[in-house]
Amino acid sequence: MYRGFWYAEALDQESALAPSLTGSMEADVCIIGGGFFGLWSAIRLKQANPDMNVALIERDRCGSGASGRNGGIATNWWAKYLSLMQICGEQEAKRVCEAAESAIDEIGSFCAEHGIDAEFRKDGWLWTASNQTQMDSWELLTLELEKHGLNPFKLMSPDEVRQRTGSPRVLGGIFDPNAATVQPAKLARGLRAVAIKLGVQVFEHTPLTKLERSKYPVVHTPDGSIRAKKVVVAMNAWGAQFPELRRMITLMSSDMVATAPVPERLKAIGLDSGVAITDSRTLLNYWRNTIKGRIVFGKPLGQFGFAGDIETIYDKPSPAADKVEQEMRTFYPQLNDVPVVSNWTGPID
Questions:
Q1: 228: helix, coil or strand?
Q2: 73-182+249-348 CATH fold
């Protein structure tokens, strides 16, 4: 199985593997999928009811899917406020955004409480413009937020944004202080450890082969089965194997590269905090540094997983790595001699 930079680094730190499921068993709740969704669900269920019998199956290792391949950028939902208002109204949009905002600190406090070294840094998010067309693309949103007294964003001058990003290409932007960066695979591995400590029965290298739908559904795997009172399908993009979900979602790739560590050079250009950065493209560029002084840069390049095809497309190096690297170097021409040492891809649904 191909491992991108984040997950390979996490396994270097800790590589425990849970057993595969063999034989039949029963559970109160069976969770299909060992990423953020599945692991947080398992943890919350056990915290709410320690006596609940919770089982979780994962096709590979927990966190090896999209949870361990993303940009490691934890932002809130205020940027989606206008869309949320159209979908569910003003009050519910406000509630959802406030809940998402509180989740940023919750990730940090959870990591501190449980000793998870996920490299959590709450240094905010810079929403920037990388060409003239993108300038002020946030203005309609911020004006609406201002109207309701909800605007968390601060307008930055062009010089301020360039100083914070270290990029001469960035023309302007706004800053939200309530965002963070993490090492996502280390976070997922930490959640896995907490779930197991709480008593969740975790089975790795245990893919779903069939979901038998009945009063008490049965989750079938290659060498076993779990009959449960409730089943949580926490598969995200991999859930496209279900026909009713396949018709509702589109799968496309987001491709990423990581440079060699150059901490002193990033400090010299101003990119030495844990700030998350995006531009304003429809399929946006997103990037950040790491605590060891690497740049990790990503962009969606439209490799589609037709008919729910995941396995043959995303479990390999990025076929678009050269294009991602080329884009990154337009933002940081002063680092053109710094090599890219890893690339990977993953699905967005």
A1: strand
A2: D-Amino Acid Oxidase; Chain A, domain 2 (3.30.9)
